[in-house]
Records
---
Amino acid sequence: MYFLSVRGMPITLTIQLSNRYVSFIFYFMDCPMIPARLISMKAYLEPFNRLGEINTDTEWKTSILEKHGQALFVKDSVPLSPLVASASREICHIHGTDLSGHVTLSFVDAAEVISKGWGERHRLSGTDWVHLGFTMLYVPNTVEETEILMKIFQAGIDYMKSG
């Protein structure tokens, strides 16, 4: 069976097995072009929420960049690195629709994330709106891969607080 996909958009494939229908949802990322296995949202959100508990100088607020959804911010009382002044203190957020995310990283960390295929540079990074290290993270394929993303998010937290 062949079907056309739009990168970054979910595709639902419904097939008939015996006397019932079964649906599969595939997410196609820009690189690599492989369907990501779905993981439970709870398994992904638990480690993400843990970041806020571990890092007491951060707080949850509505994302300034996305205009909805929760994002992790550096508290106003914590000095920021001058390099991230344009980031409005928003460190990272994930998208509830597909569990991809965005994070502000150092240039070195952003390059490593991109080279290892965990994400890509955001199209607006380096503009007046977002920091050059603003990186989109791909949907994790397994629950275990969420731990890699948590390390990436932690690197973003550390970078934002390095002031």
---
Amino acid sequence: MGTSDGNKLSGNTISLNSVYGLYVCPKSDNNVVFNNYFNNTVNGDIKNGTGNSYNTTKSAGTNIVAGPYIGGNFWAKPDGTGFSQTAADGDGDGIADSGYKLEKSIYADQLPLVSASGPQQPVIPVANFEMSTTNGSAPLSVQFTDYSENTVSLSWDFENDGVVDSTDKNPVRMYESPGTYTVNLTAASEKGAASKTAIITVTQTIGDNSGSSGTGDNGTEDSGSSSSGSSHSSHKSEGSSGGGGSPEPQSNVEAKEISQFFIASGNPVKFDFSKNATSVVYVSFDSKKTVGRTTAIAEMLRGKSTLVSELPSEEVYKSLNIWVGDGGFGTSKNIENAVICFKVEKSWIQGKNIDQSSITLNRYNNGKWGQLPVNLTGKDNGFLYFTAKTPGFSSFAITGKAKKGETAVTNSQPASQPASQSGFETGNLSKEGNVTALGSGVGQALENRASTKSPGFETVYGVISLIALFLYKKK
């Protein structure tokens, strides 16, 4: 208010201003400011004036923060440290027990508002949650979503063995072994505790020969892998977002690796697959929203994925599935700048005579294959390492093309050449017995050797023929 008198300012919400919420110049007099909601880092720049008031007479009625009395104003700050957010209200009438002195001013709000409290009745917590699934084949990823009420803390016991497995609000659990599991959620507050249980049934995968499973839990990030004949999968995978369960039949999965990461909006995300169970080294992206701790799965398949109609036309190195979260999280709607780092064995490149520059990562989307831009980033004794930019995660295939005009080395031998190609006729050397034996024997031997040696041997053959002819004439 600038040089303004006799005003009544009431019923306004003034929030999140960069300078201050209310300005009153020193020549503004006889104004009444009450029943307003202020929530700014600096709520007022009050230059005093004469006869101004920052509250009215206390009277019954619903105030701006739903309290039972009208009096002064509600003074808050965005960080939660405002006077009305921290003041005591012993009688529960929605008016603070003490007045609020306005900063750098002679005035005070004598009846500052607080959040309506009233007589408090004990509120018992209510435990409640839902699961993304209640049954399936191992390994089974289950997303838990909490709907508890009046709680201060949550405790998840995924196997009902008395051990707290997670205190997150919406965790993810990976069940690696077949069995029936009882999940127990305990919701607690200072008023008491309540619990709820549910049953999860995990069945044996048909044709699964996997052995024992390992465990792993390293806080912010967790990774594990499983493959035919052995398993190193994370037994304890928790988080507040998708578990990333795979629709691929496990009978077609040669190896699998699991990684977890806490996803926050605007922060770079990187899932490292450090167990080297598959051809995927890592996946990274920027998330457009916060979803909490999330599971990513990399699967290396035995053959063509059941989720694709056909393989790419090029030579296929490996077929892969990559899943991040669940419910279609790993799409351009939720992520950007996504990169997949993968590796290719040098022995495959050499054995198939692959043109290194032709190696690419193909993504299956909307019923067809598309090639992704690929960069060679490094190499070691056994592998070449590549990165590929992708708009999302789904089924992939690593492919390459054989070099043109070149074939793999074989043990085939050149065809034999007729002896007559030497330029010497040997048919007439059969006139006399001794010479015939010499001529035909040498000739036959040379023919046999010529069939396995290079054409340069014909010169030697010609010299021996001349010697035989010379001996014949000498007799």
---
Amino acid sequence: MQTKDKPISNTQRNKKATKRIIVEVVIAFIILIPAIVLCIYWKQLIINRIFKTILLKPNTEGYDAWLHPPTTITRGYHLFNITNPIEIVTNPTSTTVHVKETPSYSYSLSSTKQDVQWSTDNKSISYSIHRLFTRHPTQFNPSFVNDTGVFLDLVRAIFRTQFQAKAAQAFYDLAGMEAFPHRNAVEQLEGFTSDLFKSIQDKMTGPNTAKSGFIYRYNGSRSYNYTIKSGLMEKGQVLAFASEHIPFSFSSPDYYGFPIYDGLTFVPMLFDKPSLNIFQPDFCRPLNVKFNKVLSMFGGIEVHEYVIKLVDLNQCNDVNDINTCPELDKLDISQCISASLPENTIFLSKAHFYGSSNETIEQMNISGFTP
């Protein structure tokens, strides 16, 4: 027995097509709506997760990360060996100083925050920073301990400033006739003693006074004391600073007229901060850092590269805006090294005077710096 298929009418065909379209639209909405919502709020979700991680309050994940940062700090120190000391002594006014850079002496730096005290409202936090330098286990070549040369004797330079341009015989009787002594390079960092050092030792302040040495003075000591804001959007802004080594301190958040950060606390929302002012306690002043570009490092992690600017805080067109301060080739940090030093004795510059004008480099009369 045969049956004939009934022809499907256009109306039925249209109904089926309509139902199919409706089902497809519903499925599309089920898929697309969460995707649209996720796209809209994805950035905020990520930001909220980051904020939860970096929130600086007692007994939080952010506080634990702040106390024990997961990063490892490596510092490389370079000294400059003066290669023509006899010529300088023979004819000091016209002789160009020739220097040769030492290898990089690499040290691992562990910075821990101690003596932590919260304000009663948890809006600020006071702490001291302890720094411990150790020779880098792989980058510090054991043979470096045998390196010698003629290096600038900071102790002699500080002592020399107590005399006139032409020093009296008493200076040489106390400091020695040898203006450029030959010394061990690593000891200039890790600590050394001399007869001259012993004569001024009782004038030294702070811990670690048994020797002289850049790393030695800070190693293992409670170097600096900060009070910072702990609020989410202003975290790390410095309210007060004091040091065991130098008389410089301040206790007002408006001391500079613009926000400064401690450089030891993660600053949130970096993409909204093309320029930052980081207080550098070793030099008793804030240094301006300006965003330069994004780099891919550490296996593909994107990091921000900043360029340091040395600016004159006393010549700003607007005291509340560090970007209006003129940029300098070098900064006088004499008073940060010692309160007894006269001005323009010790300067801070970019490494090898990078970015300095030709006039500044020519005035230095030093050969061997390669920017």
